[in-house]
Specification:
About 65% of the residues lie in helices and about 0% in strands. The protein has 2 domains: about 30 residues, no CATH class; about 190 residues, Methane Monooxygenase Hydroxylase, Chain G, domain 1. The chain is an all-alpha fold. It is flat, with a radius of gyration of 22 Å. Bound molecules: protoporphyrin IX containing FE.
Length: about 230
């Protein structure tokens, strides 16, 4: 039997796939071959634009995780955070495409970018603020339950609060891994010398790789190890 593929959805596009996915608009968002000053602009825009989409998803999942956490629904909050974490892993993997972008070609594309910098990424900014909000919601839960952060380790994976704390550590680590990989890309493609004078863009990137949203959760881990080894934390 032949399937009927005639579109039923409203809106522009020849098929329902095109209408629902908005492919006409989406595929028109990259500079055309007539507009580009270098053919690798397509590679550059595809990696950045798809990263923006994954970051949009990550920020939405983080926001919903925060709402669930405030409602005391810990397992759904954890599941949503795990999705956001996978999105960051996927944008880390797609940085691999820059392996095939040479510093000479990257340099040739610069005039097309104006004063643009990845530091202005709206997706990244949303993810940053959503991460901080998640941290504050977690602190509220700890306060409500009267659990000090230091008590969360060693993780008891049968306890939803501990599981969520583990997922938050994983989130922090994945963001840091993205930053570490991105730093290497900046060195390799951007033609910057490795961590040179303090205050250079790449030195800043190297420092940011050490950033943590939830430092108290990392600290709790070290403390419990020290205690197990009989090291006095005083
Ligand atoms: C050829 C690829 C890339 C190069 C050479 C590069 C280079 C740089 C450099 C040098 C900086 C430091 C600030 C500045 O000087 O503007 C920076 C910052 C940044 N870039 Fe990239 N970048 C690349 C790809 C990407 C991609 C795909 C994203 C994804 C959205 C991204 C997001 C960011 C963010 C968020 C920052 C701020 C630093 C942070 O919060 O960790 N960059 N980039």
């Amino acid at each position: 039997m032949k399937h009927n593929h005639s579109p039923v959805l409203p809106g522009p596009g020849a098929t329902d796939y095109a209408r629902y996915m908005r492919t006409d608009t989406l595929l028109g968002l990259q500079r055309s071959s007539g507009e580009v000053i270098h053919r690798d602009e397509l590679l550059f825009q595809v990696v950045h634009q798809s990263a923006e989409l994954w970051l949009k998803l990550a920020a939405a999942e983080l926001a919903e995780a925060t709402a669930r956490l405030d409602a005391g629904e810990l397992p759904p909050a954890e599941a949503l955070l795990v999705r956001a974490t996978l999105a960051v892993r996927l944008i880390t993997d797609q940085l691999e495409m820059f392996r095939y972008l040479s510093p000479v070609d990257f340099q040739a594309m610069q005039p097309a970018f104006g004063n643009g910098s990845g530091a202005e990424s709206p997706g990244w900014r949303h993810v940053q603020s959503a991460s901080r909000q998640l941290g504050r919601a977690f602190d509220r839960q700890l306060a409500d339950r009267g659990v000090p952060a230091a008590d969360l380790c060693p993780a008891d994976l049968s306890d939803p609060l501990h599981r969520l704390a583990e997922a938050m550590v994983e989130w922090d680590e994945r963001v840091s891994l993205w930053r570490t990989r991105h730093y290497q890309v900046a060195l390799r493609v951007g033609g910057h010398p490795p961590a040179d004078a303090s205050g250079s863009p790449t030195t800043m990137l190297a420092k940011l790789a050490g950033h943590r949203f939830f430092p108290e959760l990392w600290q709790a881990r070290t403390q419990s190890t020290a205690e197990e080894n009989g090291i006095d934390k005083a």
